[in-house]
Design goal:
The protein is of the alpha+beta class. It has 14 helices and 14 strands. Strands 3-4-9-6-8-7 form a 6-stranded mixed barrel. A two-stranded antiparallel ribbon has the order 2-10. A two-stranded antiparallel ribbon has the order 13-14. α2 crosses α11.
Length: about 425
């Protein structure tokens, strides 16, 4: 076998220009494959982190019957005395932090300016252990138990607000008794945050839970309980949901538990569609690499017809001739895949550090990307050894398969006809 590898290597070096062009085409296709896969993985990873850290926790509990109407943000059915149930939850060692919350529709009023938004009432002391809003503050301070709000930078810019401004907050609710009710509060803008999640930065404001409970006439009640796990994998979330079933069944109030994936199924649907469409791009890149290798090997067979006849006349069997040409394609594939991984890894490393800014594609593309993904303007790649290894192995296998047909064609040549070839 070693002699065939040496012959294959020498034959590759005999046609340096053609071999170089083949290396370039296969390396380019595989490098772009590395970049595409890493960028998609990075977008998904950052999107999931932003959803979990600023929008939904790992697991959310609702009073039974609330989930079906959650888009309307009603106050009923609500969780009565959530603190008693939180005490039971914190006894579970896999739960890192818990918080009771109220979500409600709101309107922010500043003089003649009025803008609808999402109101989220949180526990100021517990919230930073679940979400990143406090650490995302770019001005002002975090909430206490006073009548103050923290709002996103985009929302603040749209309303022309800054830290310290006094603004009117209209709390809009619905319940079983009343289809529509509201209350108004004069609150201070205590802080402005930029979480990196454009949906939250553009539309959400936070205020203390106790303030919201008083304003909404819901003392010691909440619409949801958010849970953060020490390990947030799908298996851990499913295991916790299973462990909570007997606790929820034995409590006086009935609960429903939903993971962040169940609550954000729209994003996951978009992500799945993106993966399916990106497979077309991947196939095109692999086609580029495959066509280059097939073309090179076919040209080698045509130009070396007399040489193939000579090898046959000297006693080389068809299997050995096929092995020789397959090895040539394999070596080209290994070197091309290696170069592609190096080039693609270098580009991906740059995108991992600096990211791909959507602003360079125009404002329309930026707004479109923010509407689809919970990422603010810049996409970062996620460079992993598994992607590089997969592309390298896949590129090598593609090269071996691409060289199989030309190798078979060479092996089937009649030695006498090959020697007469001019």
């Amino acid at each position: 076998m070693w002699i065939f590898i040496k012959l294959a290597w020498r034959n590759i070096l005999r046609f340096k220009r053609r071999t170089f062009i083949t290396f370039i085409s296969s390396s380019f296709g595989l490098a772009m494959l590395v970049v595409t896969l890493s960028l998609m993985n990075g977008i998904d990873k950052d999107s999931m982190n932003n959803i979990i850290n600023s929008q939904q926790s790992h697991l959310t509990l609702y009073a039974q019957g609330y989930y079906e109407n959650r888009d309307e943000m009603p106050l009923d059915p609500s969780i009565a005395d959530p603190e008693a149930f939180i005490h039971l939850l914190l006894q579970n060692p896999v739960i890192e932090a818990v918080e009771s919350r109220i979500r409600f529709a709101a309107t922010l009023i500043n003089g003649s300016e009025e803008l609808p938004c999402l109101g989220i009432a949180v526990e100021p002391a517990r919230n930073p252990f679940l979400f990143n809003i406090k650490e995302s503050l770019i001005s002002g301070a975090w909430l206490a138990d006073d009548e103050a709000i923290v709002l996103g930078k985009n929302l603040a810019d749209d309303m022309g607000l800054k830290t310290g401004d006094l603004v009117t907050l209209r709390l809009i609710t619905s319940s079983d008794e009343e289809q529509f009710s509201w209350n108004a509060l004069d609150v201070t803008v205590k802080g402005i945050y930029a979480s990196g999640n454009p949906g939250i930065d553009r539309s959400a404001l936070f205020l203390p839970l106790k303030v919201a409970q008083r304003a909404l006439s819901k003392p010691d009640q909440a619409t949801e309980i958010a849970l953060k796990l020490k390990k947030g994998g799908d298996q851990h979330i499913a295991s916790l949901k299973k462990a909570l079933k007997p606790i929820m069944a034995n409590s006086q109030q009935k609960f429903d538990a939903y993971s962040w994936k169940e609550l954000e199924n729209t994003f996951l649907t978009v992500s799945e569609m993106k993966t399916k469409r990106s497979s077309i791009i991947i196939m095109v890149m692999l086609l580029i690499a495959t066509v280059g290798i097939v073309n090179t090997m076919l040209m080698a067979v045509m130009e070396r017809t007399r040489e193939i006849g000579m090898l046959s006349a000297m006693g080389l069997k068809r299997r050995e001739i096929m092995t020789l040409f397959t090895l040539e394609g394999g070596i080209i594939g290994i070197i091309g895949a290696g170069c592609g991984c190096v080039i693609g890894g270098a580009i991906t490393l740059y995108l991992k550090i600096h990211g791909l800014s959507m602003t360079s594609f125009g404002e329309a593309m930026t707004r479109m990307s923010e509407a689809i993904y919970p990422i603010k303007g810049v996409f970062y790649a996620d460079l992993s050894l598994s992607v590089l290894l997969m592309v390298f192995i896949f590129g090598t296998l593609i090269a071996l398969l691409a060289s199989a047909w030309p190798a078979c064609k060479a092996a089937k040549m009649d030695p006498i006809q090959a020697l007469r070839h001019i």
